[in-house]
């Protein structure tokens, strides 16, 4: 077991920009092929657009989330009092930071930076556990402090694309601790193996899900929290009235229906095949020091390359936007994140890399 000391980073000035996200790489640049944002390409599907359009007829009424909440509960085999619908996972992170009474929160990095940013904004001093490249960015018994009363981890983790075994994550649970697992990309994993959503036997478990990635609804903002009824009630009490719009509620109900789940399952298999094609193609550039973190399980990969900032800029000149990695704690300027796309797009990217590296 590899034991990694927790780093309590109190001096935040000069650290990574936690509020830099992939959309910043493509904002105002419609001519770029977007490999920086992890939203599935060619979404939302036509049937979902029609469903959302039909929901507009009810905009005169205040939103009522009971039906959507029950649908999400049924999807995960839990009771509705274990579900909270939110305006995307980002709202859920803010609610956790502001509503839960915690003294020593810890975030396992590298991972999505919004949880730490939300905790800081709520006045918390945030501890960091940094997973190491030499361990494949895997949990592997990382030493989360015993007195941490809130622990946040992503699974599969953005940006490393590592899928941690559910048993390893569950081992972090203990009485008096909230164990927050961000499963925003879990529906892109075939079979959703190692998911904790729907588990009621793990003390303090809080699972976050997003419907924006697989279904292309980042602009609509819809996600949900699964936890014990008391925690859900606490978080709900911190929400404003009508926090989720009627179209977003309609999307939640539709995207957890059996037909939608089957479509998402098929998409996960395609993503796995497309990711394998990308990883296989990138191996050509190993002599240039280019290396991806493997095995990867998300709809994106983490890539290390010498002079990565220059590579990123030169690929941008050739029409490809990649996500810089230095805004993630635990990573540096030599890292890039690349979204998985269809084989044709990947082949064009590989051709551009080949031209830049001269291979």
What is the radius of gyration?
A: 20 Å
Helix content: 25-40%
Note the total helix count: 11
Low-pLDDT stretches are 1-13
* CATH class annotation of the largest domain: Alpha Beta
Mean pLDDT, to the nearest integer, reads 93
- Going across the biggest sheet, name each strand in turn: 1-5-4-6-7-8-9-3
Q: SSE string, helix = H, strand = E?
A: EEHHEHEHEEHEEHEHHHEEHEEH
Structure characteristics:
single chain, 359 residues, alpha/beta, Aspartate Aminotransferase, domain 1, Aspartate Aminotransferase, domain 2, 2 domains, 8-stranded mixed β-sheet, 5-stranded mixed β-sheet, 11 helices, 13 strands, globular, disordered N terminus
Question: What would you say about this model in short?
Answer:
With 359 residues, the chain is α/β, with parallel strands linked by helices. It has 11 helices and 13 strands.
Describe the protein's topology.
Elements (H helix, E strand, L loop, with lengths): L5 E3 L24 E3 L10 H10 L10 H11 L6 E4 L1 H12 L5 E5 L4 H8 L5 E4 L19 E5 L11 H5 L7 E5 L22 E6 L1 H4 L7 E4 L2 H9 L8 H10 L2 H25 L8 E2 L7 E5 L3 H10 L2 E5 L10 E5 L3 H15 L2
Your description of this structure?
An 8-stranded mixed beta sheet has the order 1-5-4-6-7-8-9-3, sandwiched between helices. It has a 5-stranded mixed beta sheet with strand order 2-12-13-11-10, covered by helices on one side. The chain has 11 helices and 13 strands. The two termini are 39 Å apart. The chain has 359 residues and is an alpha/beta fold. The protein is 33% helix and 16% strand. It folds into 2 domains: 9-42 and 262-357, Aspartate Aminotransferase, domain 1 (Alpha-Beta Complex); 46-260, Type I PLP-dependent aspartate aminotransferase-like (Major domain) (Aspartate Aminotransferase, domain 2), CATH 3.40.640.
């Amino acid at each position: 077991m590899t034991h990694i000391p927790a780093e309590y980073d109190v001096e935040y000035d000069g650290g990574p920009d936690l509020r830099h996200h992939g959309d910043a790489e493509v904002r105002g640049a419609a001519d770029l092929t977007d490999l920086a944002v992890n939203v599935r390409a060619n979404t939302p599907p036509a049937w979902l657009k029609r469903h959302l359009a039909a929901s507009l007829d009810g905009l005169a009424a205040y939103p009522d989330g009971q039906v959507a909440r029950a649908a999400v509960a049924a999807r995960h085999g839990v009771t509705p009092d274990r579900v909270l619908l939110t305006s995307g996972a980002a709202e859920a992170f803010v609610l956790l930071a502001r509503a839960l009474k915690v003294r020593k929160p810890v975030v396992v990095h590298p991972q999505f930076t919004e949880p730490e940013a939300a905790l800081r904004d709520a006045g918390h001093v945030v501890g960091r556990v940094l997973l190491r490249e030499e361990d494949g960015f895997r949990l592997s018994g990382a030493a989360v402090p015993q007195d941490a009363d809130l622990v946040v981890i992503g699974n599969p983790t953005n940006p490393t694309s590592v899928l941690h075994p559910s048993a390893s994550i569950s081992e972090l649970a203990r009485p008096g601790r909230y164990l927050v697992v961000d499963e925003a990309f879990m529906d892109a994993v075939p079979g959703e193996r190692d998911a904790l959503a729907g588990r009621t036997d793990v003390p303090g478990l809080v699972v976050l899900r997003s419907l924006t990635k697989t279904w292309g609804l980042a602009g609509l903002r819809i996600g949900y929290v699964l936890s014990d009824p008391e925690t859900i009630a606490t978080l709900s009490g911190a929400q404003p009235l009508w926090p989720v719009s009627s179209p977003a509620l309609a999307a939640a109900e539709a995207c957890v229906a059996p037909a939608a789940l089957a479509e998402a399952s098929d998409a996960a298999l395609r993503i796995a095949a497309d990711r394998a094609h990308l990883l296989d193609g990138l191996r050509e550039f190993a002599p240039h020091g280019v290396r991806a973190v493997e095995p990867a399980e998300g709809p994106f990969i983490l890539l290390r390359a010498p002079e990565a900032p220059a590579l990123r800029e030169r690929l941008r000149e050739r029409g490809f936007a990649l996500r810089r990695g230095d805004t993630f704690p635990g990573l540096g300027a030599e890292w890039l994140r690349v979204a998985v796309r269809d084989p044709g797009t990947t082949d064009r990217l590989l051709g551009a890399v080949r031209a830049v590296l001269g291979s």
